[in-house]
Amino acid sequence: MDKIKIPFSEFNFSYARSSGAGGQNVNKVNTKVILYWKVFETIACRPDVIERFKNKYGQFILDSGEVQITCQEHRSQKMNQDACVERIHFMINDVARPPKIRKATKPKRSAVLKRLNSKKKDSEKKRLRRGDY
Question: Considering the entire predicted model, what is its pTM?
Answer without folding.
Answer: 0.70
